[in-house]
Amino acid sequence: MAIFFDNLEMYFNQNGKSMKDTNTDSRRTFIKKASATAASVISYPFLASCATGVKQDKEKLGIALVGLGYYSTDLLAPALQETQHSYLAGIVTGTPEKEKIWKEKYGIPEKNIYNYENYDEIANNPDIDIIYVVLPNSMHAEYTIRAAKAGKHVICEKPMAMNAAECEAMIKACKDNNVALSIGYRMHFEPHTQEVMRIGQEQELGPVKMVCAGAGFTMPNASKDHWKVKKAMGGGAMMDMGVYSLQAARYVTGEEPISVSAQAINTRKEMFNEVDETMMFQLEFPSGAMANLHTSFGVSMNYLDARCGKGWIKMDPFSAYRNIKAQTSKAVLEYPVINQQAAQMDEVAQCIKEGKPMRVPGEEGLKDMKVVDAIYRSAGTGENIIL
Ligand code: NAD
To answer: What is the pLDDT of residues 147-177, one digit of tens each?
Structure first.
C-alpha cells in the first residue's frame, strides 16, 4: 500500500499488518481516552477566543476548502467523506474546471462555490461554518484574516504563516472576530503520537535528554518551478517538512527551546537557489534537554528517536498519514490506525459546536514560527540565537 505524506512524491511502502485495528467499541473507547489524556497533559494554552462560547446547533458543521491542490484533493476531501461532525460544504478555487469536477464528485451546490475574487462574500453563506486554508504558505495569513473578518472559524495549514509576526496578526484577527483558529497539525490527533507526548511530558522513562528527528522526501528535479522552491511563496524544506521535526522535539519534551543553531545545505544549487534544500538545526531546552533535528527535500526520512533518563522512544515513521509505528524501551505501542485528517476536522468541529478550546490553537503555530524565524536567522548568520 502506498502511504503518501505531505507530498505526492513521497511515500512509504508498508503493509500495515502489524497494526492491530481493534473492534469499533474498543477503538471508540481508546480514542476518547487518548484525547482526554492528551488534553489534560499537554500544556498548550487554550485561547479563550477559540472557545467562542456560542454553541452551534447544527449536527454537522460545513467546511469550505480554500485551494484545491494536492492536500485538499487527495487527503482532506476524501477524509470529509468519513467525518461525523463536519462535512464538505464548499470550495474556493481559481480554476473553473475544478469547480465542475468537485461539484459533480461531491455534490457541492453552486451557491457554495467561490473563487478568489468573490471569496469575502462567503460571509453571507450560513452553510459555511469553517474555512480551511490549504494554500501556498505565503497566502495563509491573508486568507485566514479574511476568513475571520467574514465571521468564519478557521483551520489553517502548516506552517501557520511566513513568520511569527504574521501568526500574531492571524491570532488577533480571529480573536477580534470571535472565531476559532486551529492549525493543521494532524499528528496531535494521532493515538501513537498522543501516547509518545504523554510518555515524554510525564517523564515516564525519566527526563527527556535528547530528541533526534528527521522529516524529508526527495523532491524530483522536475519540481524546479514548484512554489515550494520559491522563497516568496514560503518554500523551503524547513517550512514544509521541518516543522514536523521541530514539533517532535517540542511535543516530546513539552518545553520551548531557549537557544537555536542551524545550518542550511543545498546540493542541487540550480534548483535550490532561493530556499533551503536541507536544514540541520539544534535546540536547547530549559530542562537541559537537547534536540538534533533535520529536514530535507533531498533525503527521504521520517523518524523520531528520544533518549530519556531511564529508556528510549522510537517512531518510524512518525508523521506519515498512516501506519505510524512507535516503540519504547519497555513496549511496542499498538493503537488503532485512524484517518488523521478526519479525526482532526471532526474534533475541531466538535469543539466549536460545544464552545470548547482547540487542541491545536493558533498559538501552537506561532510557537513553531518563532523558532523557525530563529532557525533562518541562525542559518544566515552562523550565530547561535538565544530565544
Ligand atoms: P499544492 O501546490 O498542491 O496546492 C496549492 C493550491 O493553491 C493549488 O490548488 C493552487 O492552484 C492554489 N493556488 C492559489 N493561488 C496560488 C498561487 N499564487 N501559486 C500557487 N498555487 C496557488 O500544495 P499542497 O501540497 O496542497 O499544500 C497546500 C498547503 O497544505 C501548504 O501550506 C502545505 O504545507 C500544506 N500541506 C499540509 C499537509 C499536512 O499533512 N498537514 C500535507 C500537504 C500539504
So the answer is: 999 999 999 999 999 999 999 999 999 999 9
Within 6 A (CB) of ligand 1 lie 6, 67-71, 94, 134-137, 157-158, 184, 186, 227, 240
pTM for the model stands at 0.90
Residue 79's alpha-carbon distances to 74, 90, 192, 339, 340, in angstroms, are: 9, 14, 19, 7, 8
Answer yes or no: are the C-beta atoms of 79 and 321 closer than 8 Å: no
Q: Are 67 and 135 in contact (CB under 8 A)?
A: yes
Peptide bond into 126 cis (omega under 30): no
Active site residue 244: yes
Q: How far is the CA of 363 from the centre of ligand 1 (A)?
A: 22
Farthest-apart Cα atoms in the chain, separation: 59
- How far away, in angstroms, is 258 Cα from ligand 1 center? 31
pLDDT at 221 over 70: yes
Please compute Rg for the chain using Cα positions: 20
CATH 3.10.450.50 applies to domain 191-336: no
- 196 Cα: distance to centroid of ligand 1 (angstroms): 29
**Helix H or strand E encompassing 247:** helix 243-253
Active site residue 70: no
What's the CA gap between 214 and 236, in Å, rounded?
15
Q: What percent of the chain is modeled with pLDDT above 90?
A: 85
Segments of the chain assigned to CATH 3.30.360.10: 191-336
pLDDT in tens, 324-379: 999 999 999 999 999 999 999 999 999 999 999 999 999 999 999 999 999 999 99
Which candidate, 191, 184, 250, 139, places its Cα nearest to that of 5?
184
